[in-house]
Description:
By secondary structure, the chain is α/β, with parallel strands linked by helices. The chain is built from 13 helices and seven strands.
Amino acid sequence: MISSKTVVGVDIAKRVFQLHWVEPDTGEVVSRQLKRDRFLEYFTNRSPCLIGMEACGGSQHWARQLTALGHEVKLMPACWVKPFCGSNKSDAQDARAIWSAVQQPGAKTVAVKTEAQQAVLALHRIRQQLVKFRTAQINGLRGLLTEYGEIMPLGRAALAKGVVAAFERIAERLPAVLIDTFREQWSRIATLDDQINEIERRLQVWHRNDASSRRIAEIPGVGLLTATAAIASIGDPRAFNSGRELAAWLGLVPRQSGTGGRLRLLGISKHGDTYLRTLLIHGARSVLTHSKAPPTWATKLAQRRPQNVAIVALANKMARTIWALLAHERRYQRDFVSKPTVP
């Protein structure tokens, strides 16, 4: 019987799960394998325990299931588990590493998301994949037309205007089978456009029905994609103690390198969610370069430092603002000045 204080490290897989724990009463080290269909059954009749898992594919599902059984689940980022793996790689070694990592003081964990939040992220991932497909199709068509002297203008809208005329010009001297194939390629690009627009329409419906998403969308530079992706990726804002922790989780803080008491700041760490970080940086770039009234501090920073430095600094500020609005359930105020908490 697992006591309430037992810490269990779980290495999940497709079919066989590896468990590792130490019996608190006897000190016995236990390493056990469980089939996938017996995993939940094993924990159903156990006393509540702390279960550590690496944040990977399927971990969110199992975390929700185990939490429903009364257990406490902590999802560990892979970078926090790796230092405890040692030199050899095996399922038993990974489970032991997770067991060690989850007990470390100050260990960072990944928030357990709801199924609705994961559904929104799934829409974002599918849209991102379709955008990559569309870009590949467009670049392929551009390259093929270049072989026949047709240089397409830059930009999606300019390409749409010029490609039909290009087909008519080369149709006079090239085989019909090739021209038909080109037109089919262009038709596939239009189909991808429709699919991407449909996903964005579904995200818009979800966005209108979610108060938190509408609230953070009031921040300059935060649009539909950034707002919905932030709500779904962050999960519970209370998982972060401050806005700076969220910015660090997104990799928007500088890396540090130092020795002998000397500390040197490098470029941003680029840890965490690449997709959400990219959306925030693109939003910050739009505010700084196209907004009629960009933040004064960001404009002054861009005058004395490279523009990308100012853009990342503004993205960092946007991430902190998002956390503040979510954690304190406030509306965005452009001229709001935070005050230190008096103990």
